[in-house]
Amino acid sequence: MIILLFVIVLVTALWLPIPVGLGCFVGMIKSIRRPYLYYLLFCLGVSLPILWLIPNYDSDLSRYYDTMRLMQPLSDWSAFIDFSQNDRILQYQDANKVFNVIEYLIARTGRFSWLPFISTLACNLLVLFPVIDLRKQKKLDSWIAAGLSINLLLLFNLNLTANTMRWALASALFGCVAYIYFVKLNDFRYSWLLITPILFHLGIILAVILAVFVAIFRKGTRVSYLGLILGFIGFWLVTERFVGAGSAGMFAQITSMANIYSTDFLVRNSNGLIVLFLSRLSGVLLLIATLVVGSRSEKCDYFERLCRLQFVFWLLLFNNTMIFNRYVLVSSMLGLFYIAKNVNYVEKAKASACLLIVGISGLMLLVNASAGFKRMTFSVPLWELITTNLISLLRNVPIF
């Protein structure tokens, strides 16, 4: 009987992989014994439509596709290395060598949509892991786990993970490794994990520095925090000077990026401004929600200390427009992780108030995710894509 049931489930999954994957959300949340199997199937099901995504001409994804077209004729690794040293885009991404290598490997196949698919799948797996882990340990009620998971999926929506890939991957990886290090390991021997997000985007350096600071200064004295803030202010004061002096190396990349992202260089219509406003407001609401379930004593754990620092520095970045917008993602994600970790250990009234705020924030994230999804174009109608079997999905991935 068990074998027959397994065969039926397997055939159904091959026949309708996307609906079955989405249906695994229930198993992922409800199952205590084997949540990770449902978790993997759900993330696969959510990510599969990206294989048929067509990039808009003005999107970051289109730029990645253009770079991969130039990579296609490269015959070997030496040719790739030479190309990396001369191509303007890859020079800009020089600190993100892992991502560049993934681009090259996918470019060789001609099926460029594997790149946004891998990004989306990885982001979903990374951001949902803390919630599933807490749920497996019975530290989180199923309905709360479901609500927080939906918020995380809306935060890291398909348009974000498929287009703004490097930043989405760096942010998701940072959140996951920060949770693993400060909540599960808490062992300085594994502190190297905290710097791995830089392999995908150098802009995550601020979040990484704050995490390393918490890992090193475990006591967190007022003097150390004051020194951190003064160092941050000093960096902004010398940024323009160093960039203007033509300095080279990683510091020059960081200062140049800080200058570029200190303004909002994107052209936004009224809808874009509304989305931006809702994104910022949802971040502020999640900050308030974390304060509601904040530590009941002066002594807080390391993960809570990290979350507090991230929120403080996010607010300090308010005048640095694009950087502030980017770090909404990091701060909101950490806020949701923190709520997942602590909401079951506070008074019922506080927990209810926190979850109400999270729900309101989720509605704003839903508007943003919907607006992003409307801008996405697929090579076949969405309904046909959802009802396509797995073999056809993989066999007919568009070739560019």
Give short descriptive properties of this protein.
single chain, 400 residues, mainly alpha, two-stranded antiparallel sheet, 72% helix, globular
User: What does the largest sheet look like?
Assistant: 2 strands, antiparallel
Percentage of β-strand residues: under 5%
Radius of gyration: 22 Å
Helix segment count?
A: 20
Identify the strand order in the major beta sheet: 1-2
Structure characterization notes:
The protein is an all-alpha fold and 400 residues long. It is built from 20 helices and 2 strands. It has a two-stranded antiparallel ribbon with strand order 1-2. 40% of the residues are buried. Mean pLDDT is 84; it is low at 244-248.
Question: What's this entry about, in short?
Answer:
The chain is mostly helical and 400 residues long. It contains 20 helices and 2 strands. Helix 8 (114-136) packs parallel to helix 17 (321-342) and helix 15 packs antiparallel against helix 18 (348-374).
Task: List the topology elements.
Elements: H1 2-15, H2 17-30, H3 35-47, E1 53-54, H4 60-71, H5 77-86, H6 88-92, H7 97-109, H8 114-136, H9 142-155, H10 158-163, H11 165-185, H12 205-216, H13 222-244, H14 250-260, H15 270-292, H16 302-316, H17 321-342, H18 348-374, E2 377-378, H19 382-386, H20 390-395
Helix pairs in contact: 1-2, 2-3, 2-9, 3-8, 4-7, 8-9, 8-11, 8-17, 9-17, 9-18, 11-17, 12-16, 13-14, 15-17, 15-18, 16-17
